[in-house]
Amino acid sequence: MRQQKQDWRAYQQSLKQRQKIIARSHTLKKGVLRGLAGGVLAALVIALAVTFAPRIKAAFDAPPAPSRQENPNRLTQDSLRGLLDPRTLAHLDHKKLQVTQGDKELTLTTTLDLELQALLINEFKRNIARKRGTPRYVAAVAVDPATGRILSMAGFSKEEDAENPSLEAAYPAASIFKIITASAATEKLGLTPRSTLSFNGGKYTLYKRQLNEKKNKYTNTISFRDSFAQSVNPVFGKLGALKLKKENLSGYAERFLFNQEIAFDLPVEKSTLAIGEDPYQWAEVACGFNRITRISPLHGALIGATAVTGGNIPAPYLVDSVVTAGGQELTVPRPPSLGQAVPQKVSSTLNELMQRTIRSGTARKSFAGYRRDPVLKNLTLGGKTGSISNKARDVRVDWFVGFAKENKTGRSMAIAVVVGHQAYIGTRASAYARKAITCYFSHPPESPRPHIADTQQAKTPNDS
C-alpha cells in the first residue's frame, strides 16, 4: 500500500514537470512570433516612409490651391463687410470712400442719393440740437425696391453703445408687425380689404376679454383695410390668437426675414421674434403689442418694399463700384433677391391696406393735403405707423414704414424711419418720411449701374 502511494506521488511530480516544460515551450514560441511580427511591421513602416515621404513633403511645400474668393478681380460681400466701418457710414455725406485691403488702395462709390441723404442728415441734426423735443435716437433707410440700391441711410443716437442706428435691431417693431399679420391673414384666411371684422372695447388696448368672438350691443364692426389703417389692436389680436396661431405667425415672420441674417454690404443685426405657446402672446405678437419683437430700419424698408415688388424682398446694397488705384474695377457678386415673401395677390392687398393708412388712417395728419402737393399728387403712397413706449417709459418709439411709386414712370422708393421721442414729442417718423419722399421725387433719378448677381445666394421661402 505504501509502495502504491509513492508511485502515485512520483507520477504526479513527473506530470507537473512535463506541464512546466510545455508552458516554457509555448512562451518561447510566442516570443519568437512577437519578434517576427515586430520586425515585419518595422520593415513595412520603413518601406512606406521611403515611398511616400517625397510626396508628403511636396504636398506641404506646394502653394495652396487658388480659391474662388482669391480672384483678384472679384470682391465678395463678406470681404466688403471687413473693409467698411458701420460708424463711418451712419450718416455719410459724400459719395465716395477710400479704403485699404492689404496693400491695395480701393475707391468705393456708394449708391446714396446725395440730395436725399443731405436732407435727412440736416433734418436729424436740426432736431437733435433742439432744447425741447430732441429725440434719443433717429434713423432712416430708403431703398429702391426695383434694384435694392440704398438711396439713403442716416441715423444719430445718444445711446452709448450705438454704432449705426440704421442697422441695429434695437427697436420694438410695434404695429409694423401688422404688415406680417395682414399678409398671413390675406393668404391663409382669404381676407380681402373689404372683409368685415369685429371687436369689443378700445381700438388700442389688448385685454384677454377682447380676444373672443362674442358679440353684443357694444360690438364694433370694421373692414379689414380700416382695421389695418387705424391699427386696431383687438382685431389683429384675435386674428393671431384664434385664427393664425403660432405656426402661421412664426412662419410668415420667417418669410419676412425675422430671426435671419440679411445679406448686405455691412453687418445687419438680426430682427427678432420670440413666440411661445400662450394664445394671449400670439395676440400680442400679431398686433405688435409687445417689446420683444424687434427690427432694424433697414429691415423695415425691405418689408415696405414688398408692397410694390409683387412680394419680392430686394437684396439691398450700398456699394455701387469698387476701383483699384490702377483703375481696375472689381466685381461684387450679390444675390438678385432675398426671397419671395408673399405672392403677387397678397402684395397687392398690402399695397391697398397701406394706401388706406395714408388717406384715412394713422398717417393721415402727416400726409394731409398730399393730393394737392405738386410732387406727391403724382405718386401712389402707402405706409404703416407704429408706436410703443420702452420698458423704462422714458422713450416713445415711433415708426413709419412705407412706399411711394410714381404713377407715370413706375419709379419707386421704400422707406423706414424710427424716432425715439423723449419727454416731448418732436418731429414724427411719418413727417420725416413725407419730406424724404418729396425730396427724392423732386429731382431726376440716377441711372442704376448693373451688378453681377450671385444666384447661389438667393433663396425663396420654399428653399431649404
Please explain how this structure is put together.
- With 464 residues, this protein is an alpha+beta fold.
- The protein has one domain: 3-Layer(aba) Sandwich (Beta-lactamase).
- The protein contains ten helices and 15 strands.
- The protein has helices at 2-61, 77-83, 114-128, 178-189, 224-229, 233-255, 279-287, 297-305, 344-360, 429-440; strands at residues 96-101, 104-110, 137-143, 150-157, 171-172, 196-199, 220-223, 294-295, 312-314, 319-324, 329-330, 337-340, 379-389, 396-406, 412-421.
- Helix 4 crosses helix 9 and helix 6 (233-255) packs across helix 7.
- Keywords: Membrane, Transmembrane, Transmembrane helix.
- GO terms for molecular function: penicillin binding; peptidoglycan L,D-transpeptidase activity.
- Residues 139-430 form the Penicillin-binding protein transpeptidase domain.
- Residues 443-464 are annotated as: Disordered.
Per-chain topology:
Layout: H1 2-61, H2 77-83, E1 96-101, E2 104-110, H3 114-128, E3 137-143, E4 150-157, E5 171-172, H4 178-189, E6 196-199, E7 220-223, H5 224-229, H6 233-255, H7 279-287, E8 294-295, H8 297-305, E9 312-314, E10 319-324, E11 329-330, E12 337-340, H9 344-360, E13 379-389, E14 396-406, E15 412-421, H10 429-440
Antiparallel strand pairs: 1-2, 2-10, 3-4, 3-15, 5-8, 6-7, 9-12, 10-11, 13-14, 14-15
Helix pairs in contact: 3-10, 4-6, 4-9, 6-7
